[in-house]
Amino acid sequence: MTMIGLEIHCQLTNLNSKLFCSCKANYREFEINENICPICIGLPGSLPRLNKEAVKKATIIAMALNCSIPEKIAFFRKNYFYPDSPKNFQITQLNIYGDTSVGGPGSIMVGDKKIRITRIQLEEDPGRLIYEGSSSKNLITLVDYNRAGTPLVEIVTEPDFETPKEVRDFLNILSDLLANLGVADPSLEGAMRADANVSIEGGKKVEIKNIGSFHDLEKAVHFEITRQESLHSRGIEIIQETRHWDDKRKITVSSRSKEEELDYRYFLEGDIPWIKINPEVQEKLKLGMPESISFKKERYISKYNIPVQVADVLSSDKFYSDLFEESHTETNAKEVSNIITTELMGLVDTREKRKASKLTAIHLKELADSIQSGKISRNSSKNALHEILKTGKDVSQIISELDLGNVSDESELSEIITQVISEEPQAVEQAKSNPQTINYLVGKVMQKTKGKADPILTLDLLKKLIGIL
Amino acid sequence: MNLKISALDFIQEVKNGNISAEDFVANTIERIQSVDDKLHAFLYVNEKAIEQAHEVDKKVKSGGKVGSCFGMPISIKDNICIKDTKTTCASKMLEDFVASYDATVITKLKEQDAIFVGKVNLDEFAMGLTTEFSAFGPSKNPWNNEYVPGGSSGGSAVSVSAFECVASLGSDTGGSVRNPASFCSTVGYKPTYGLISRYGLISYANSIEQIGPLTRTVKDTAFMLNMISGIDPNDNTTIDDKNEDYLSEIDSGIEGKKIGIIKEMIGGGIDPAVLSATNNAISKLESLGATCEEVSLDMVKYSVAAYYTITATEAGSNLARYDNLRYGYDFPVEGYEFNSYISKARRNFGPEVKRRMIIGGFVPSAGHAGKYFLKALKVKSKLTKEINDAFKKFDLLITPTVPILPFKIGEKIDDPVSLFLVDINTVTANLTGKPAISIPFDNSNGLPIGIQLMANSMHDKLLLQAAHALEQTVTLPEIPI
User: In this predicted model, what pLDDT tens digit does every residue of A306-365 receive, in sequence order?
Assistant: First the structure.
């Protein structure tokens, strides 16, 4: 049986500051080595100053993954030499002397399958290495410490996955969950990384490191299973080792075995006292947690009668569900959900597009209301939406500027309808005997008005002028 | 000018206008220039000290708000960061390191108008108890220049006892303030763990060490503690002492107090002169109305082994950052791969630091931790339980600070284990987090003897009151310098 386990690293990107100092957790907008201080570059004499918000956020993640929460948590030092680690040790958590990391054993459902979580720990991200030079002879390694000390949550699973597909489903659910909790923006470059352990029947466990994105993770796992199965079928032993994901060649490559021999000499970080997370604190955190994705979905279905599939996509993406929450009313909820899932999702499908979009919840509310009141047709609302994203102008302004408004002037519409009646005598006769066929005539009116005729008014007028009322 | 006055007297004299801070500091600098060639307490003398004292005088004269130190000259152990000042830890590794920020204690003292006359010598990274392990040469005991001044805060003790400053800040990981205080005949105090911020103190063994003052009198120590104690957002291990005034009620005396004499610290290996001084101190305490009784702390016999195991483990980790990549000394990286560079760069550590880092790589390592590091932690927690039990019965504990007299420079340098054992009476306070103080008590053939008192956690005020009471019974010869 194939067994796959994951170690996922997620930066708490929604925090203001780093884990142990007041430098920004959002290091991405800084020039190289501008987001640093004596603490995060480990200057002699500096001490870690724990960011309590990070502990709270990490605990919330643990709760959302149904993990046990210890009453007291502690930090440990993991000692190893690497140039991206300014202290040459990492402050992290450990459960070998009792459960003292932010989350103990837990689980999450992926479809019908329960995936067990081993533990969740809070730790600091190292700096970033930049390699320059064309050959090994003139290779230079530069270090950017802007990222050093960024709060990182490590989520470790049991080897409960059997296929790359299950891995991918889990990662989708997990990243939606983290975004919904408001702790991280998983779409940020490098905000979520993962290592995987893969083993097949009769083989040893192989660890794959250095996987930069979730997309590649699925590929790496797939490659590794294939590689191991191929070895196995030829009777070659699968050894326990660490392999690296080669991003360019899309294969896993054996790492030098040195890494496995490392002894991290873990011991308690004396500079950070134990932190109590008593039941009252836990209760308070629980109350402050946002509504879960599944509860949200249920609510959309039962309260607004939104179809299951629509409710599913709407609730799982925080960007859209936030928009929905802010823009919908008792009466327009379904219309809003429609605009979001049929139109908007296609228009802002990347992080960049979302960032560039000028759309607000007010726009969305007004657009839905305008459709419902007949000011604009559903068809024209698509054009209006494009314009809103681009310019951020008022819905009513856009309707009038681009002449997207419905033709709802009775005399103007009557004129057009009279013309259609004279052009389509056969259809008119048919409509008289079979009122359902009147839609053909409505279509003709729409053609002439380029889809802008107020549909309700058109129908009324048609019936009146044909005389089938 | 009389440079021998206490900190409190100095403040009074400046306040009264009898002396100016500038004159006093100028005379202090002159004194450093005349005696320090011989004593080698200072690694760096602050050229701007006189000018800074002049600014304080201006405030005094104009009737403006003046900080409580009134321009008092203080020396600082060279493992405490002062902004824009070299902070070397007496190591070749940090020969060119200039601190970019002030330690919390420095910020606090600056706000109170203290003047830093210079940075003083120590054993490299505070590892040692003689200053012989300073990469820049040993300091000399002012009582007899052939003898060690103790350590690791040797420069601090020498500068206070030889009147090169009024007070000094040292750091105490296993006795590093109290040991040189005892050898040089000054007061040396290690507070309850967490009472003074360690932010800006370069870590050696961070879970047990504290910054502590070295002064001429116990009252001066209480004053210094008032200046620098208290909770610090930059050090998560600090304790809120609610702005306790350690100087008020310092005269409370010790009538009715129960004092335990730690049996294991007056036993085998103790110098007869030290033993007789201790017995003398005990009778003095009794004559002041205290009752003294022996108490046994069984774990003390393992304390030095536990201490060196724990400190080596923490040192191995704390000193790992000195890979010379970000700061350090001049040694270009070109042509090296990371691992070969750091192993070359780290050759600049001295022998004692190397020794402890090697031990620190071994004792907590997989397969050995159970036998060494974890066992040491067990001793630490058992010892803490024992001493907590003792404090249920006693208000204070008494021991000689060091079981032997100061020894000659070079006498023990090649015998690290016998050096380690000199710490036997001081490490307990560090391992258990308790406050402890050494006061000058006696003199044997011109060599000082100190007595140590210990109290329960956060009973620092009581400890200082008792030390002050005992201090009042002592008359000592003048230092021959």
Answer: 999 999 999 999 999 999 999 999 899 999 999 999 999 999 988 889 999 999 999 999
Host H or E run for residue B436: strand B436-444
- Token pair for A309: 């599939």
Cβ of B199 within 8 Å of Cβ of A86? The answer is: no
Contact B236 A77 (CB under 8 A): no
Residue B167 host element (H or E) = strand B167-172
> Residue A469: pLDDT band by 50, 70, 90 thresholds?
low
Q: Which CATH class for the A410-466 domain?
A: mainly alpha
CB of B480 within 8 Å of any CB in chain A?
no
Structure tokens at B363: 């004792």
d(CA A115, CA A160): 6
pLDDT value at A8 more than 80: yes
Least confident of A128-137, A153-162, A186-195, A235-244: A128-137
- Tell me which residue of B223, B229, B221 sits closest to B197, measured CA to CA: B229
The answer to whether residue B75 is catalytic is no
Partner-chain residue, chosen from A38, A42, A271, that has the shortest CB–CB distance to B206: A271
The DSSP code sequence of B177-246 is THHHHHHHT-EEEEPSTTSB--TTBPPSSTTT-EEEEEESSHHHHHHHHHHHBS-BTTBTT----TT--S
| Chain centre distance of CA B157 | 8
Instruction: Give the mean pLDDT of B185-213.
Output: 98
Helix (H) or strand (E) holding A168: helix A164-180
SS3 state at A443: helix
DSSP state, residue A292: P
Test mutation, A17, A22, A37, A46, chain B, max B CBs within 10 A: A46
User: Can you tell me the distance from the alpha carbon of B197 to that of A320, in angstroms, rounded to the nearest whole number?
Assistant: 48
Q: What is the CA radius of gyration of chain A?
A: 29
Number of H helices, E strands in chain A: 17, 15
Distance CA B298, CA B296 (A): 6
**Chain-wide mean pLDDT for chain B?**
97
Domain with CATH 1.10.10 in chain A: 410-466
A301 C-beta neighbours (distance < 10 Å), count: 16
Tell me how far apart the alpha carbons of residues B481 and B478 are, in angstroms, rounded to a whole number. Answer: 8
Query: What ipTM goes with this model?
Result: 0.96
For residue B267, what is the DSSP state? S
User: For helices A438-449 and A410-423, what crossing angle results, to 10°?
Assistant: 120
Chain B residue with Cα closest to A83: B338
B308 sits in which H/E element: helix B300-318
Cis ω on the peptide bond leading into residue A316 (within 30° of 0)?
Answer: no
d(CA A258, CA A242): 10
Rounded to an integer, what is the distance from CA A284 to the centroid of its chain?
26
pLDDT in tens, B80-134: 999 999 999 999 999 999 999 999 999 999 999 999 999 999 999 999 999 999 9
Tell me the longest C-alpha to C-alpha distance in chain A: 94
Domains and CATH numbers, chain B: 7-255+405-410+426-471 (3.90.1300.10)
DSSP code per residue over B344-394: HHGGGS-HHHHHHHHHHHHTTSTTTTTTTHHHHHHHHHHHHHHHHHHHHH-
CB atoms within 10 A of CB A377: 23
Angle made by CA atoms B180, B183, B185, in degrees to the nearest 5: 100
Strands (E) in A190-308, as ranges, are: 192-199, 206-211, 241-246, 251-254, 267-268, 275-276
Contacts of B325 in chain A (CB under 8 A): 83, 143
Q: Which of B20, B139, B152, B182 is catalytic?
A: B152
